[in-house]
């Protein structure tokens, strides 16, 4: 065997960089023929080295000392196809040209399938064809290297982006997602690639609407939809999608960005609620001032009238009692209105959420039994201790429990109460009923002061409940379907 030690320094011949070529060939006659072809004037910038064994060839390839490899198809008990495959697995990006003694289409297809740069039949090679094949292989390798560099750069941006970025087909099935999508939705990349996207949308009509817009206009910007995570948490998101077209202008795939605006929406909602409470507070104070003065005079006049009447007959006693009770009721309503509209002064202490919920349920258990309804409880076995105001939360929970009981049919009602620890920083109470549900047009106004769907009541119970929750820096979410029931989800920081 004849080999040459590669020269690692860069040589330049007539402004052409020297190309280092390694021939992997177990037939010395073929090596001599190839060397002769390499000696032609047009190939003067090509330098040829030769090895004949599979193992030595792989060692040279892994050392990355050559620009191009000419690989014979037959290498003893192994093949050039195997060598090219093993080199590719080892991370070799230098072009490899497969040489074979016979023109075999199956070998040709195999060579192309494994990434060989070219396929040459030995008996048909001349110096020009060999030189041109090597030059084209190098140019192709340079182009692929540039593409790989660009791909790596954009892949890095894709993977490290804070925004949730995805690639999808025309049916909006995922083809790729970045880690931010996994974090937002709680699913792994593999799970998302196999998933029907309809499972992620709170309302399937939203997915249908988005698909139509993308197909019709090739893009959609800031489309608002509610996505449901693997853990069941609903996230309000803005989705932007645009088409990537082929050379003929036809969309071949789609890419998109998802922005989670849940916290932003909650902050806006809390600001609106705070403004409403401020206005309600001003109105309540104004009403209290205007009503309490004459109410006080009325109460004093009633007391004086009772004193002057002395011993009253039965009818007089009946009327004075009615007046007295209604004066007290008006005063209580004024107090409730004032309390529901002003920020709560909390006495927050470490409290077990399970104990507060159990204690509050005791106040409504008689109503549930009287109406022959079912109460189902699931208390967390984890530590649900948080800084809470026990008395205020009893008021908040009582308002929701009573509303739930009153919304359900006697003998058919089912109230389900769950507590859980969402993570190390939050505790949660979920209250579900199977009542009549809340119409969508009323759901947005549910916590507005003086809004009520009942024939009686001032509509301040849920306003006070939300005020208490907000004072705890917590969140209250409501999900309701007419004819099915309503679910309240109250979350508090630990």
TrEMBL record:
Residues 221-273 form the PAC domain. Residues 20-137 form the Response regulatory domain. Residues 150-193 form the PAS domain. Residues 286-494 form the Histidine kinase domain. Gene3D superfamilies: 1.10.287.130, 3.40.50.2300, Histidine kinase-like ATPase, C-terminal domain, PAS domain. The modification 4-aspartylphosphate is found at residue 72. GO terms for molecular function: ATP binding; phosphorelay sensor kinase activity. Keywords: ATP-binding, Kinase, Nucleotide-binding, Phosphoprotein, Transferase, Two-component regulatory system. It catalyses: ATP + protein L-histidine = ADP + protein N-phospho-L-histidine. Its EC number is 2.7.13.3. It is an enzyme of class 2 (transferase). PANTHER family: PEROXIDE STRESS-ACTIVATED HISTIDINE KINASE MAK3, SENSOR HISTIDINE KINASE. This is histidine kinase. It comes from Fibrella aquatilis.
């Amino acid at each position: 065997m004849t080999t040459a030690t590669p020269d690692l320094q860069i040589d330049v011949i007539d402004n052409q960089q020297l190309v280092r070529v390694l021939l992997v060939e177990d037939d010395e006659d073929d090596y001599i023929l190839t060397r002769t072809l390499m000696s032609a004037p047009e190939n003067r910038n090509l330098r040829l080295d030769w090895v004949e064994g599979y193992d030595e060839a792989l060692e040279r390839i892994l050392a990355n000392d050559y620009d191009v490899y000419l690989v014979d198809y037959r290498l003893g008990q192994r093949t050039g196809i195997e060598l090219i495959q093993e080199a590719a697995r080892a991370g070799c990006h230098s072009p490899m040209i497969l040489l074979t003694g016979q023109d075999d289409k199956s070998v040709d297809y195999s060579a192309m399938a494994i990434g060989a740069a070219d396929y040459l039949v030995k008996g048909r090679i001349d110096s020009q064809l060999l030189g041109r094949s090597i030059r084209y292989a190098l140019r192709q390798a340079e182009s692929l290297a540039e593409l790989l560099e660009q791909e790596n750069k954009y892949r890095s941006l894709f993977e490290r982006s804070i925004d949730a970025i995805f690639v999808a087909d025309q049916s909006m099935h995922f083809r790729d997602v970045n880690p931010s999508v996994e974090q937002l939705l709680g699913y792994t990349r593999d799970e998302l690639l196999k998933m029907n996207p309809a499972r992620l949308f709170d309302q399937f009509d939203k997915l249908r609407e988005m698909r139509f817009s993308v197909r019709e206009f090739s893009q959609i910007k800031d489309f608002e939809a509610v996505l449901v995570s693997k853990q069941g948490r609903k996230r309000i998101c803005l989705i932007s999608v645009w088409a990537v077209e082929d050379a003929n202008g036809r969309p071949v795939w789609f890419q998109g960005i998802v922005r989670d605006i849940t916290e932003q929406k909650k902050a806006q909602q809390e600001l609106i609620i705070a403004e409403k409470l401020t206005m309600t507070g001003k109105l309540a104070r104004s009403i209290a001032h205007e009503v309490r003065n004459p109410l006080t005079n009325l109460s004093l006049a009633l007391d004086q009238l009772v004193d002057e009447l002395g011993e009253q007959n039965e009818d007089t006693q009946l009327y004075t009692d009615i007046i007295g009770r209604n004066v007290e009721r008006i005063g209580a309503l004024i107090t409730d209105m004032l309390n529901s509209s002003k920020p709560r002064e909390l006495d927050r202490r470490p409290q077990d959420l399970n104990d507060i919920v159990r204690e509050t349920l005791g106040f409504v258990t008689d109503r549930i039994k009287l109406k022959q309804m079912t109460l189902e409880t699931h208390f967390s076995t984890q530590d649900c201790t948080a800084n809470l105001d026990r008395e205020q939360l009893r008021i908040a929970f009582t308002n929701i429990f009573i509303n739930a009981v009153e919304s359900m049919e006697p003998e058919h009602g089912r109230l389900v109460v769950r507590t859980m620890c969402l993570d190390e920083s939050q505790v949660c109470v979920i209250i579900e009923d199977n009542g009549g549900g809340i119409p969508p047009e009323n759901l947005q106004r549910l916590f507005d002061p003086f809004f009520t769907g009942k024939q009686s009541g001032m509509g301040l119970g849920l306003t006070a409940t939300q005020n208490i929750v907000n004072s705890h820096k917590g969140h209250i979410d409501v999900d309701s379907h007419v004819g099915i029931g309503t679910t309240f989800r109250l979350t508090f920081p630990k």
